[in-house]
Amino acid sequence: MIPQELIKKIRQIQIYTSRAVDASFAGQYESVFKGRGMQFDEVREYCPGDDVRTIDWNVTARTGRAYIKRFVEEREMTVMLAVDLSASGDFGTVDKMKNELAAEFCAVVAFAAAKNNDKVGLLIFTDRIEMYIPPKKGSRHVLRLIRELLYFKMPRRKTNIPIALDYLARVMTKKATVFLVSDFIESDFKKPLSLLNKRHDVIGVCVRDRAEVNLPAVGLVEFFDAESDEVMLVDTSGRNWRRQYGSTSARRFDDLNNMLRSINVDCISISTDKPYIQDLIQFFHMRHRRY
After folding, report:
1. Are strands 220-224 and 231-235 parallel, antiparallel or unpaired?
2. Which terminus of the chain is more solvent-facing, meaning fewer CB atoms within 10 Å of its CB: N or C?
3. What is the CATH architecture of 4-33+76-290?
4. What is the DSSP letter of 113?
């Protein structure tokens, strides 16, 4: 049985996302992430003026008359949400944890996809594959994905992005748009990401908390690394230490963006301390201008 607290949380996210995914937002999604390319529809007899390159030679040889292949624009697409729910996501200093923000972001994308009659699937991973739900259509399916994201009992696990990318490369045979949602603590995944992006349209979603960017001066703080169980006592009142911390954090984020750019993977950055819907719409605008 699903706990009442979880049902309430799912309902809150459903209400929020239904407001966020309004006509304008859904239109932006459709203009950017509609299915691309052509798919086979039928064969018909050749008519003068038809492109000879579309002749179906097998049917033509079998019937003795010229037939052509007819194609239609492929409208339906598949969205895959690959979500890192490792222990480092159990952190937040504002309104919500990073993992909660990741679930909310996925809900917005999933409901937008459902409005566009697209299929949506889910992969939850840590340092192993925790759960895979194949893509399907419908609001009931989307609600199941959100429930699994929120109900997932997060173990004290590390992050292994390559294992998730390799798994997707094996199970996804049809071209899809993949949202890779993570705080990207791990950095050694360029090669498998590049390979996956050649077959699919991969978009990185970097989930952060403001304390990971600018640490406030709050005196002595005991830091606990949820993925390694290491504990460190730090005096955050030291200005030089905070400056170095901020510089290191900014450099790590710049390195991530540069790496993604080098293999043509777009990235959206979302944070626990600010709304992200407008940033997402601007991202859609950017993609629409490009395509």
Report:
1. antiparallel
2. N
3. 3-Layer(aba) Sandwich (3.40)
4. H
